[in-house]
Amino acid sequence: LPATSLPDGHQVTYGIRPEHVRIAETGLPVQVTVKEQLGGESYLYARSEDGEQIVIKTDGEDAVNQGDQVRLAFPPERLHRFGADGQAL
């Protein structure tokens, strides 16, 4: 996920594992560019409006296809924070 500015001027980047990203009714809009089906699971490779690539792990039965537009939710308890130096905060 893109870096965001903190009030004190430091930069932080948020990361999340593909299995924790959720397709939702509301959230970040992305377009699926590639769908990799691997039996019981699929990996969706998507791009946000600002060009960030996001990987989503779903079960192999999902109805999402390449070219689809979906919205993503990121559970706050699953987010990892990193400083400008790449070190976990």
Mind explaining what this structure looks like?
- With 89 residues, the chain is mainly beta.
- 0% of the residues lie in helices and 52% in strands.
- It contains no helices and eight strands.
- It has strands at residues 3-5, 11-15, 22-24, 28-38, 41-48, 53-59, 69-73, 80-83.
- A five-stranded antiparallel sheet has the order 3-7-4-5-6, with no helix packed on it.
- A hairpin with a 2-residue loop joins strand 4 and strand 5 (41-48).
- The chain is elongated and about 45 Å long.
- Shape descriptor reads elongated
User: Roughly how many Å is the radius of gyration?
Assistant: 14 Å
Round the mean pLDDT to the nearest integer and report it.
89
Report the span from N to C terminus: 15 Å
Instruction: State the low-pLDDT regions, or none.
Output: none
Total number of strands = 8
Helix content: under 10%
Largest sheet: 5 strands, antiparallel
How much of the polypeptide forms β-strand, as a percent range? over 45%
Alpha plus pi helix count: 0
- The SSE order reads EEEEEEEE
Structural class per helix/strand content? mainly beta
Placed side by side, the strands forming the largest sheet appear as 3-7-4-5-6
